[in-house]
Design a protein that fits this description.
By secondary structure, the protein is mostly helical. 77% of the residues lie in helices and 0% in strands. Helix 3 runs antiparallel to helix 8.
C-alpha cells in the first residue's frame, strides 16, 4: 500500500461521501453534542470512541463482503433494524424525560457521574444498531472498487474514512464541551432535549416501519 493509493479518484470520492455523511446531523452527532455540553469533554470523547468502534466494525464487515451475507440472510438486517428502532425509541424516552424536568441543571452535572465504560458501550450500541451505518459503509466500499483495481482500494478507503470519522466525532466532542457551549446548554437544555426526543422518536419509528 503506497501513499498514492490513498489519493486516487475513486478513493477521494469515497472520502468525500463519507465526510458528508459523518458530519451531517444524525443520532450519533447529536448525542455527542448533547453529552459534551451536559457532561463534559471526557464523557463525550468516550462516547465518541464507542461510535467510532461501531463504525469500524461495520467497515470491516463491509470490506469482507457483508453485502453477500445480507443478501443470503436478509433477516439479519431486519433484526438489526428492529433493535435499532427500539434503541432509538428508548433514547427518545430518555430525552423526553430530561426535557420535562422543570429546573435547569448546573453546568456539567448531567450524566457526569456515568461510568466511562457505560458511555463507551452506549456509543458502540448506538452505531451497531444503526442500519444506515451498514448501508453507508457498503456504499463507501463499493465506490472504492474499480473495474481495474478491484478490491485493492478497499484498505485505503477504510483507513482514510476511519481517520475522518475520528476527526469529526472528536471535534464535535471538543467543540461542544467548551464553557461557552455549556452555558448555552444550560439555557436551552429543555428545548434541546425535547428536540432530541422528537428526532430520536421519528428516526426510531421510521426504522421500525420501513419496508426496505
Amino acid at each position: 500500500m503506497t501513499a498514492a493509493s490513498f489519493l486516487t479518484a475513486d478513493v477521494l470520492i469515497a472520502y468525500s461521501a463519507y465526510f458528508v455523511g459523518t458530519a451531517s446531523p444524525g443520532p450519533s452527532n447529536l448525542a455527542i453534542m448533547s453529552l459534551a455540553m451536559s457532561a463534559g469533554r471526557r464523557a463525550a470523547l468516550t462516547f465518541a470512541l464507542g461510535v467510532v468502534s461501531g463504525s469500524f466494525f461495520w467497515a470491516l464487515l463491509a470490506s469482507l463482503g457483508l453485502s453477500a451475507v445480507l443478501a443470503t440472510y436478509s433477516q439479519c438486517l431486519v433484526a438489526i433494524k428492529i433493535a435499532g428502532g427500539l434503541y432509538l425509541l428508548w433514547l427518545s424516552f430518555r430525552s423526553a424525560r430530561s426535557a420535562l424536568r422543570s429546573a435547569s441543571l448546573p453546568t456539567g452535572t448531567t450524566r457526569a457521574d456515568e461510568p466511562l465504560k457505560r458511555l463507551y458501550l452506549r456509543g458502540l450500541l448506538l452505531h451497531l444498531t444503526n442500519p444506515k451505518a451498514i448501508l453507508v459503509w457498503l456504499s463507501i466500499v463499493s465506490l472504492a472498487i474499480s473495474p481495474a483495481g478491484g478490491m485493492s482500494h478497499t484498505a485505503p478507503v477504510v483507513l482514510g474514512c476511519m481517520c475522518i470519522g475520528v476527526s469529526v466525532f472528536s471535534s464535535y466532542a471538543v467543540l461542544f464541551s467548551t464553557d461557552s457551549a455549556r452555558r448555552i446548554y444550560v439555557a436551552i437544555r429543555r428545548w434541546l432535549d425535547g428536540s432530541l426526543a422528537i428526532m430520536f422518536g421519528i428516526a426510531g419509528l421510521k426504522m421500525l416501519t420501513s419496508k426496505n
